[in-house]
Amino acid sequence: MLALITHPACLEHRNPPGHPETPERLEAVVARLEDGLVAGGAAVRLEAPRARRDDLLRVHTAAHLERLEALDRAGGGVLDPDTSMGPGSLEAALRAAGAAVLGVERALAGGGPAFCAVRPPGHHATPSRAMGFCLLGNAAIAARAAVERLGAPRALIVDWDVHHGNGTADAVRAEPRIRYVSLHQWPYYPGTGAEDDTGAGNLFHVPRGPGLPRERYVADLLAAVDRALDGFAPAVVVFSSGFDALGGDPLGGFTLEPEDFAALTRAIHGRAPEAALVSVLEGGYDPPRLAEAAWRHAEALATATG
Ligand SMILES: [Zn+2]
Question: Which domain holds residue 14?
């Protein structure tokens, strides 16, 4: 059965007033998934644990973790122009990363797919620094735990957030057991993710301009997934699931609709039917649209079997 993995602490990370990455985003997602899946018995809600330090250290430097801990002890502070911490931020980040790892542990053990409704998001956090609203690289931490601790021979990360996951790419670019596919707006923040940046042959970047027909984004992402799956059978697919690729998102120029995320989920499951499926929330800044798309995606995860 699908697990909805979340934690109330993820609501206690507070950005400065006017910042688009708000607790209301997560409240909207959790409420929609509770109503649409948990209440009807199609999903079970689980509490996210704190991530283990050894799992964090597979992706992040000790100096990065110590900096977050020092700011936490100081009650918060600014990490980059759009990334900051308050009194609840470190706890939120540890629960977010822990949710992703729990999802992978449970899914690899045959417990079923998972959607991790968490914040802060993770895919911009590099091994050595926080940036772009992100403190810890949740998806990368989960994927590296999968292959380095949990016995998965291979893992695929699919990142459909409108921004390139520069942190995820940096965390896995020297790890050929993990392949990373990212569709992202180009040129755009954070400026990375060029098509010819292929890492160790394990990065599959799909940079695209804004305003294209939505079918084009879907087709181009699936074509990259096909290339990534050529000769590569992942034990787990980790979706780095940003919904700021929706048409009308205040931070993106893509044109996807909520049902496209259900179609993508089914199409990717169909291409890797043996793989466990775990999704981790990234961006998405129009809460009603975000919640609708997250529900469509999670419902498709819930009905994926095998
Ligand atoms: Zn984003």
Answer: 2-302
- Tens digit of pLDDT for each residue in 105-125? 999 999 999 999 999 999 999
17 Cβ contact list (under 8 Å, min separation 6): none
- Distance from residue 241's CA to the centre of ligand 1 (Å): 9
Phi, psi torsion values for 179, nearest 5 degrees: -110, 145
Q: What one-letter code names the amino acid at 197?
A: D
**pLDDT at residue 306, rounded to an integer:** 44
For residue 164, indicate whether it is catalytic. no
What CATH number does residue 165 fall under? 3.40.800.20
C-alpha span between 205 and 289 (Å, rounded): 26
pTM given for the model: 0.98
* Confidence label for 238 from pLDDT (cuts 50, 70 and 90): very high
Q: Are 172 and 178 in contact (CB under 8 A)?
A: yes
Phi-psi region of 110 (alpha: psi -120 to 50; beta: other; left: phi over 0): left
66-120 pLDDT, tens digit each = 999 999 999 999 999 999 999 999 999 999 999 999 999 999 999 999 999 999 9
Total domains, the chain: 1
Residue 162 Cα to ligand 1 middle (Å): 5
Kindly give the distance from the C-alpha atom of residue 176 to the centroid of ligand 1, in angstroms, as a whole number. Answer: 25
Contact at 8 Å (CB) between 240 and 139? yes
